[in-house]
Amino acid sequence: MSPADDAPDRGPDTAPTDFLRELIRSDMADGTFGGRIQTRFPPEPNGYLHIGHAKAICLDFGLAAEFGGTCNLRFDDTNPDTEDTEFVEAIVDDVAWLGFEPERAPLYASSYFDQLYAWAEHLVSAGLAYVDDQDGETISAQRGGFGRPGVESPFRTRSIEENLDLFRRMRAGEFPDGARVLRAKIDMQHDNMQLRDPVMYRIRHAHHHRTGDDWCIYPTYDWAHGQSDAIEGVTHSLCTLEFDSHRPLYDWYLDHLPLPSDRPRQTEFARLEFTYTVTSKRKLAKLVEDRLVDGWDDPRLPTLRGIRRRGYPAAAIRDFCEFIGVARTVSRHEIELLESFVRRELNATALRRMVVLRPVRLTITNWPVDEHGAAAVEWVEVANNPENPDEGVRRVPFSGSLWIESDDFRAEPPPKFFRLSPGREVRLRGAYFVTCTGFETDDAGNVTEVMCTYDPATTGGNAPDGRKVKSTMHWVSVDHAVDVMVALYERLFAAEVPGEATGDPLDDLNPTSREVLERCRAEPIVGECPPGSVVQFERLGYFAHDPSTAGLFHRTVGLRDEWANIQRRSAR
RNA sequence: UCGCGGGUAGUUCAAUUGGCAGAACACCGGACUUUGAAUCCGGGGGUUGCAGGUUCGAGCCCUGCCCCGCGAGCCA
After folding, report:
1. Pick the CATH number of A3-271 from 3.90.25.10, 1.10.10.410, 3.40.50.360, 3.40.50.620
2. Under a CB-based contact definition with an 8 Å cutoff, are residues A306 and A94 in contact?
3. pLDDT digits over A148-166, tens only?
């Protein structure tokens, strides 16, 4: 093989290009920001991260690294009512799991409260901010609407001295919650509603997870975000599309503060959404609070903790995010595309094991007995991963009494079914060819036992005469089987866009999103699977061993299943 | 109603900035196979939202229209 053959798929010629990279490249080329790039990932610690955040994380950290810069993890903790250290810890952990390392220890917008306050006084002193005594309802009504200009607050023309005095007394705690706010003095007629004298500070006598009771006024998102970026030296402040209309405000604040010329610049991109799920903290919290799922790490949830417990590899998520690129078109990806990345990664890395989900007994009638009259046991070698010979082989006990998958036997085989049925010969993986000689049923007609003979010449699954079989099946020795519990998952929602029809996503909840199989039979080595590891149950799919409950396996994703497609097509 | 953003295959994105509209996933077919997996090969798929204009030539530029998203928290 020549060196060119094993060159990576993405050489310099095919490096991803998108509007963000083009922007950064052009900034680098013309010396904007002195050829420097610094980004930040700015979650609010009021919930758990989900798959949608993965795109932002990959972009914020990935782009900085790609262009030789750095990325901070900064908590946007300006609202004490909803935030908690529980979420801080989980978010730090999730970002690390995804494979990204912040340049510094986590940062907090709350660390900048003093500076923010000083800058607010600066704006008040410049006549660019004022204290408004009206309540929220009144202010909202005065703001006007789309195509309808707002009206100015009667307090807008207060003197600078009075504003300063009032603002200081707000900070000193002289007024109750909601009594007054500090507002930027911009333009109540502006087409962009964000610029109609936005609120900068609100009074909230609340305990903050980091600053405790030091403050009773808290900055709003808009007043805190750009300034935090500036303090940290962020150059490219990347966020999702819904902040597009906030950009003029982001710039307005920065323009009116004593800052160096290298100011951060906000750029928006489309958030990541998927079919058959929801990615909104509010909706996810609803599922958890209403106990519709087990918790924030339920494997059916698109939270990072959920998909991690489900067995999705971080590498697959990173590859996916790189593959989909970034644009400004609102996009909802087919969940199948993510799954295909999960399969691709796991196919290369997951060890193969044999587990029978829905067991039916198979008896080999001509299996030998040993010198004591007991059924012989033979340990056969099976590859741990045919995709990767370096993983070696394991020895699996085989005998005349086996469990096979009930789906793998049909008394009356339908067209194109080429697994086991009376008179049919198949291969038992790594062991022998067997031919079905008969079967037993119970009173209801369910198959209870399948009888076979085996061909001793086909040891290891090889036929010396070269004859072929149409099917190779997995199996587990009855006497050596270990019981495991398996959770099979379908989509959490039955509709492509949950809530599209009725407005409430819960109306589209899939009632059969989880099926638990209590007694699946596994080959002995499955009992040694490390918690959290993901293996392939041959012919069935990838399964993740639960991190805390031994013997519980979550189906990460099934294998592609041509037989299921055939059945689906013939059903129509 | 006003402002901003967006519209290329079923889906998500490309198209060297005005030069033969492509890729992946999905779907269909074939090869191979000790996983009906993986892998390999091939196929169907398009009025580039619509209409007009500029141009030798328009997905790209201009004009008008249509559709979708976001915006009137003291949330982020």
Report:
1. 3.40.50.620
2. no
3. 999 999 999 999 999 999 9
